[in-house]
From TrEMBL:
<dbReference type="GO" id="GO:0016301">
    <property type="term" value="F:kinase activity"/>
</dbReference>
<dbReference type="InterPro" id="IPR029056">
    <property type="entry name" value="Ribokinase-like"/>
</dbReference>
<protein>
    <submittedName>
        <fullName>Ribokinase</fullName>
    </submittedName>
</protein>
<dbReference type="InterPro" id="IPR002139">
    <property type="entry name" value="Ribo/fructo_kinase"/>
</dbReference>
<feature type="domain" description="Carbohydrate kinase PfkB">
    <location>
        <begin position="4"/>
        <end position="187"/>
    </location>
</feature>
<feature type="domain" description="Carbohydrate kinase PfkB">
    <location>
        <begin position="199"/>
        <end position="278"/>
    </location>
</feature>
<dbReference type="Pfam" id="PF00294">
    <property type="entry name" value="PfkB"/>
</dbReference>
<comment type="similarity">
    <text>Belongs to the carbohydrate kinase PfkB family.</text>
</comment>
<keyword id="KW-0808">Transferase</keyword>
<dbReference type="InterPro" id="IPR052562">
    <property type="entry name" value="Ketohexokinase-related"/>
</dbReference>
<dbReference type="InterPro" id="IPR011611">
    <property type="entry name" value="PfkB_dom"/>
</dbReference>
<keyword id="KW-0418">Kinase</keyword>
<dbReference type="InterPro" id="IPR002173">
    <property type="entry name" value="Carboh/pur_kinase_PfkB_CS"/>
</dbReference>
Amino acid sequence: MRVLLAGLCTVDQVQRVAEIPAPGEKVRSLSMDVAAGGPATNAAVTVAALGAEATLLTVAGAHPLAALARADLDAHGVDLVDLDPGQPDPPAISAVVVRESDGERTVVSRNAHASSRSVLSMRSLHAQLPRLEDEMPRCVLLDGHHPEIALHLARWARERKVPVVLDAGSWKPVFGELLPLVDIAACSSLYRGDDPRAYGVPVVITTAGPEPVRWTTADGSGAVPVPVTQARDTLGAGDVWHGAFAYAVARGVEGLQAWIGFANEVAAERVRHEGPRSWTASVAKMGEGLP
C-alpha cells in the first residue's frame, strides 16, 4: 500500500531548552537534533513508520544542507523523489526551540522559495508519473507548497479516483484552484482563509491541538476527542496527524470518525516523546490496529 505525498522539505535544527529565551538572552540547550521537516515530509515519515510505502515528491536540491534531509528520510524509509536535484540554493531551514517543561515549541522558518526552475520540476514530475502508476497510491496528501506540483498531482489523482487530502495549515494562494480538486481538507485551528466548503470540498476537518477534532460533511458534523497525554514535544504533531490520517484513508476501512480517531492516537503518541524522530519506533505497530 502506497501513499503519495507532495510538498515542503526543510532542514530543522531543533534545540531543547529549560525555558524559551527572552529577547537578548542567551541560554544553553539541553539537546540538539537535525532532521528533515515540513508538513508533507513529517507526514511521509509517519506513513513509513506505520508500515506503508511513503513516496515524497519535493524539491531538495544540490546544496550540501539538503544531504542532511536526504539522510534522515532514507533512514526512516521514505522514498524521496527530488524533482529538481540540481537546484543550487539551500533548502528552507527551520530554527526550532522546544521547552522542556511542556514540549511547547517556537519555530522560525521560511516556506519554499519561488524558483525560476519550476519548469524543470514539472518536467521531472511528468517523468515520474508512469512509475507512480505502476503501484497506484491509495491516497495523495498535499500541503500546498510547490503549488504547480500540487495542482498537477491533484488533477492526476482526481482522474484516477484516488482520494486527495489537503493539509490546510494556513491559506495559500493556490488554494483557490486546489480546493475544488480536494476530497478532504484538514485545517488547523489557526487556518484563516476561505471556507473549503465554498469550493465544494465534501469533508472538512479542523484540528486544535489537545482539543477535540471537528468534522463536517453534507450529512452532518461532529467531533472526535483527543487522548489525554503529557506532552513532551509538540514539534510536528500536526504533520504526524496528517500522515496518520492519510494512512488510515489509504487503508480504506471503518470511515471518517475512525480515521480521525486513529490519527488522534498517533499524534498523541508522537507528543509523548522528545526529539524529532524518537516517536517512530513507538508507532511502528499502530497501523496493525486497523482492520
